[in-house]
Amino acid sequence: MFQLPCIRKGASVSKRETLAATAAIDAAPPTAASGLVRAYYELTKPGISQMVAMTTLAGYYLAIPGDLVSYAQSGNNWIHFVTTMIGTLAISSGSCVANHVMEADIDARMRRTASRPIPSGLISIRAAVVFASILTVLGVALLSMVNVLTLVLAVATWITYVMVYTPMKTRSTLAVVVGGVPGALPFAGGWTAVTGTMDPMAWVLFGILFMWQLPHFYALSWMYRADYREAGFALRAVRDSNASMLSWQIIGTSILTSILALFPTYLEATGWLYAIGALVLGGWLVVEGVRFRRDATTQSARRVLLTSYAVLMGVMILMFLDKR
Question: How far is Cα 46 from Cα 151, in angstroms, rounded to an integer?
Fold first, then answer.
């Protein structure tokens, strides 16, 4: 256990000694408790959770009249908003923890995932199952207070991710397409939490995020194809040695993402500033897909991946800036 140096009463302490003591505190190793908290947090797949939070918020914001602050201050709307966000995140996080449990053996075989909490031994399977159950039950309880449709979409997210997509990853290349469904449902869920209907705009939001995930994951799969091959995943990148088919899939899905991103303006949910920005961002993703087809290197795949992140973030920001 780290202790501060003992200072005698009446003794003078130099500036150097004070700075040394402060530096020692800053350099002290984290406690076991803090490490365990980080391990449980990692089980929720923070990257996915952040995307779920961002898209749910964007869908919710587009559906409400006026700005979010004024809406939240009116009546008990802030309770509805907070319940929607926490409930959606809880169910999504529960599905991610369940995914960790189901893929513990596979994660142990891949270099980039071997240090995850379960294969590394930080958290037991039993503890992870309990954690997943608590998160899922909490999410269901909260979203049941929002509306039935949003609850159904969230439960469908859990089922398709855990019970369909996860076991399908080692059996069929179509798993990537199926995996786009649970990834895209929270975007629509944010909208339906306010409207209570799966109307055309809800389907458009679902479609944008569904299609965006495909070039994103195709690029990721090419970058880590050796790991995925070792783990036994049935991916196009594993079987397509020169990316001849994969590159066309990236280009085609990037084009479709760009087209779908224009529909919020067509449905009058966003203005023309959004449409122009979304078109530019989508074009950028297509260009990077074409560059990947020319050389099919890990570096060009990483550019597609990073561009996809920038495109999604840019589209979300534009939705907030140019909402009608």
Answer: 22
pLDDT tens digits, 12-70: 444 444 444 444 434 444 456 678 889 999 999 998 989 999 999 999 999 998 777 77
In whole angstroms, how large is the CA radius of gyration of the chain? 23
Tell me, what DSSP letter sits at residue 108?
H
Q: Which residue, of 174, 197, 220, is where some domain finishes?
A: 197
Q: Are residues 74 and 216 in the same domain?
A: no
Within a domain: residue 4? Answer: no
Would you say residue 287 lies in a domain?
A: yes
Contacts of 179 (CB under 8 A, 6+ apart): 161, 165, 169, 213, 217
CATH code of the domain covering residue 84: 1.10.357.140
* 3-state SS, residue 306: helix
Alpha helices in the chain (DSSP H): 15-26, 32-43, 46-63, 68-73, 77-102, 104-109, 125-143, 148-159, 166-168, 175-195, 200-223, 225-231, 236-239, 244-260, 263-266, 272-295, 298-321
User: Range of 265's domain?
Assistant: 199-324
Per residue in 101-139, pLDDT tens?
A: 998 888 888 887 888 889 988 899 999 999 999 999 999
Amino acid identity, position 252: G
Structure tokens at 83: 């319940």
